[in-house]
Records
---
Amino acid sequence: RAAKAFVGAHDIKSWEGVIRRYPGTIAAGNANLQIASAEAAGGQYSESDKSYQAFIKDYSGHPLFVNGLFGLASNAEAEGKIDDALKYYSEVSGKYNSSYLAPMALYYHGRLTEKSGKQKEALQDFEEVIRVYPQSAMATWARRDADRLTAKLGLNRAQPSPSAANVSANPQASPSGSASPQASGSPTAQS
């Protein structure tokens, strides 16, 4: 019943109804994620952060728990709160390193680290994506950026990582290769 209610919900009001009628269910957690995502898409980052934080507090066992942390990271990045974004991306890629969002979080951490002027640290992040998640879609992006930074820094790597041509077109356990945290949307688990 909860899953059917979630599938039939298409806006914040109806997702709130799922949460009220079926508290603590996977469907209610999914509805909470949808609310947070919709708020972020509307530029309401403060409200979205509250929704993600409520999800994290109330749904620690949810199959998409990591989406709450990644959502907070994406919001922080969109608001220019780079230190907060880096913290959340680190948590996703470190503590939840087997999640499907880990390769993307590590890549985004590298991207923001580079923007902060720390090119060698960013290069390490990109190389780790390639080494730890070679079959992920993010490995292709990381290879491109690692090659660019290696050349820019004048480094000569003795053991090059797999080239982008060797990265599988079928990602193992990763999200789409979207370069934008908001572009891929928020996947939902089924109950």
---
Amino acid sequence: RSSTASGQSARDATTTRATIRSRPPNRPPLSMRPDWELELYEPARLDAALEERLLDIWEQAMLATHDFFGDGGETVRLKRPYVSRDLRNLKLVCFGRAAVKGFATIAGEELKMLYVVPESFKRGIGAALVDYARTRYGIRYVKVYEQNTGAVLFYKRLGFVIFEKSVNTDRHGQRLSVLRMTLKQPPTPRH
């Protein structure tokens, strides 16, 4: 392997350049913005406008990442009322005070939902929401479809490991594997 003047391999330097190019202009990564924690908040109440925005985020993210359903979005449309109910009944954390870009829901020690608008994928929003849920509420578990390989890798990078696999059959007869993941070392909640 060849090395650059800074000691990085040529492959690492190319990866770094590709990552930088994929970010929108004038937008530093989330971890480099000193105010990123100010974007996390728990809404006092879920009004109709916020609920609609969260449902739109959920739908956009589902359509972008769950193409393995193979039904052209029919499953997503059918699940929308159930997601609406869950938004009203679970602990909710949002990212983006001026314009919500992502959200997470929590029930006990489980992260139930984590969705980010597709144009904000890979900017640290999902990781920030998971970190907040982990440190504030002590989440330890998450379920994810095995076919959603991007999500499986995302959670693994955050310290989750697979400990259970089940197979569900959807209404079209398609078999989908659901992975239950847990943190290697659960955090202590900061209530």
